[in-house]
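Notes from hallway chat w/ T.B., transcribed later so I don't forget. T.B. wanted the structure written out for a chain they're using in a teaching module, and asked if we could keep both sequence and structure tokens in one place. Agreed to drop them here.
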Amino acid sequence: MKPFVGCPFARVVLGCLCAVRALAAGDASATPPGYLPYFEPGPAFPDEVNRAYSVFDDVYMCGKHGSLGELASAGVTLLSHVPFRAKLLEAARERKIKVLPYVSLIKVVDLARCDGSKSGSGTHTYGVLWKDHPFWRELDCSKHPEWRLVNAKGDHERPFHSKSYWAGVEMSCCNSPGLPEAYIRGVKGLIAQGACGVFVDNVHPDKHCHGPKLGKHEHIDPTITHTDAYYRALVAVYRAIKAMSPSHVVILNAGGGAGRYLDGGDMDMFETSSSWS
């Protein structure tokens, strides 16, 4: 049986769980001598200050400082939700820490709309991040609108069925021609940049895409459900990563029990939430 991430004694740090406290307050220039910041400084928006890691700003938000040296000395060997920058990935490898950037197979991005515009979650400058990200730049649905999931009403579905979800981030149809290959190109791009695997979030796809039925787009295999298509895509990504190196790691987040999707990962995270005083 594959392991589950959730034990407080596991030598795994999940960025979203705020596992490492700040070393000091202040700006990045105040980093104590001998410590290498494990984030890359970026803008911090008011609605992001309580997040452990802002995937949009490419910066850890759990206090102001932490260090790869501190993590290594504590015996941490896996670090998820990391920024994807090559400098950080190289520094982590030097300390024998495997870093796993965040990806999701239920989302595609409309890079033509990723311009920092307002959405239900506030204003973000994530356009720069998406366009520079080895994974997300492969999932540009402005060039492939057929990659978006279609609901029973014939509308393109938003992630988590939320109309106020971040502008430019859309729900994907894993059964759409070309998208499974784009996933693989994206993770290969991350690994080529120095990642040692990926953290796959949102392992809970919608059961159906109604694209073919409503004449919106075609499916690779019209005989299977969308959950089956997601399973195939996830397993293909996992096999591609393992083919690059059997030592690479894939962590899944199914929100509590991955079931058969563990065929596409090495371990499953049981997600929870914490408040910090």
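Follow-up for T.B.: Confidence is low (pLDDT under 50) at residues 4-11, 13-65, 118-125. Might be a good example for the class.
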